[in-house]
Amino acid sequence: MSAQTPPPATPPPASTAPTPAAAVPALSADEIVQKYLAAIGGKEAISQVKSVYTESSVQVMGNEAPSTTTIVDGVGYKSETDFNGARIVSCYNDKGGWTVNPMMGAADPTPMPDDQYNEGKSNIYVGGGLYDYAGKGAKVELLPTDPAVKTYKLKLTSKENVDSTYVIDATTYLVKSVTTKGKMQDQDVDITTTFSDYRKTDVGYLLPYAIDLDLGGQFSLSIAVKKVELNKTIDPATFQMPKPETKPEAQPAAKSGSN
Q1: Phi, psi for residue 237 in degrees, rounded to 5
Q2: How many domains does the chain have?
Q3: pTM, whole model, 2 decimals?
Q4: What pLDDT is attached to residue 244?
Q5: Is the pLDDT of residue 6 over 50?
Q6: Average pLDDT, the chain
Q7: Each residue of 160-182: b (16+ CB within 10 Å) or e?
Q8: Contact present, 37 and 131 (Cβ < 8 Å)
Q9: Which helix (H) or strand (E) holds 164?
Q10: CA atoms within 13 A on the CB side of 40
Q11: Residue 111, CB half-sphere, CA atoms under 13 Å: how many?
Q12: Do residues 186 and 168 touch, judged by C-beta distance below 8 A?
C-alpha cells in the first residue's frame, strides 16, 4: 500500500459578523451636562462672558438676509433680520417678549404670547438652557437612544413646564440639536435647531458658527455666523419693547369763503 498525504484542512470561513460598536459610556443626566459645559469651555470661561453680539447671514427661501443677535446674560436676547427690506425682530427679556414682523402683518412691536415667551426665554442666558439649569428651576432627564448612534439625549423641563430635547454627541459632548414645541401657521410643530462648526473664542468659550432651523418640515433656514464680539457694552434698554409711533392726526381742511 502506498502512503497517501491527507488533503490540507480547509480554513474556516472568515466571519462576516459586524464588529460591535464601542459602547457609549453610561453616564447620568447631570454627568452629561457637566461634560457638555466642560466641552464648551468650562464654567469659568462661560462666567467671563457677559454679552455676545453676532453678525450673521441667513439663507431663507433662496435669499440671503443679514442678521444680528445680541445677548446680555440674564438680561435679554434680541435677533434682528433684514429680509427684502422688512425688519424682523424677535426679543426676550427677563419679564416678557415682543416681536416685529411686517411679513406677518405686525409692523409695530407686538407682545409675545406667554407660551411663545416661555419657549424661548432660555435664549437670554449665555451657556444655554443647560447651564445652571437647577438654579433656574429646571430639571433634566436622560432619554433612551440607539447605542449605535453614539449620542445622548436629554429632556430639559423648565420651571414653566416647557420641554426641550437636547441631542449631545457622545464623543465631543457638544450639542448637536435642540428640539422644542412651537407653532407654525397656528399648528403645533416640532422646531429643531441643529448646531455645527463650533469655534473657540478668545476666552475659551465655544460657539457654533453654523445653525440650521427646521420648523416641522414646513419652513427651514440656515444661519452662518460671520462675526462675534464678546463683552461688548450693550444698553439693557435695547431689550425693552418700544412704544408704537403715534401718527399726527389729520387736521380738518380749512373752509374757504366768507360768512
Answers
A1: -65, -20
A2: 1
A3: 0.82
A4: 67
A5: no
A6: 86
A7: eebebbbbbebeebbbbbbbbeb
A8: yes
A9: strand 163-169
A10: 27
A11: 6
A12: no
CA distances, 119 to each of 105, 142, 179 (Å): 22, 20, 11
Q: What cell numbers appear for 88 in the block? A: 424682523
- Asked if 155 and 168 count as a contact pair (C-beta separation under 8 A), the reply is no
Q: Which of 222, 219, 216, 225 is nearest to 179 (CA)?
A: 216
208 forms beta bridges with: 198
Fill in the amino acid letter for 220: S
> What secondary structure letter does DSSP report for 202?
T
Distance between CA atoms of residues 121 and 245, nearest Å: 27
In-domain check, residue 103? yes
Contact 155, 171 (CB under 8 A): no
DSSP H or E stretch at residue 215: strand 206-215
217 — pLDDT class (breaks 50, 70, 90): confident
CA atoms of 224 and 22, how far apart (whole Å): 33
**Any domain includes 141:** yes
Domain for residue 201, yes or no? yes
Range of the domain at 156: 29-235
Distance in angstroms (rounded) separating the CA atoms of residues 164 and 177: 10
Q: Specify whether the CB–CB gap between 195 and 176 falls below 8 A.
A: yes
Q: Which pLDDT value is given to residue 2?
A: 38
Residue 43 counted as domain residue: yes
CATH no. for residue 169?
A: 2.50.20.10
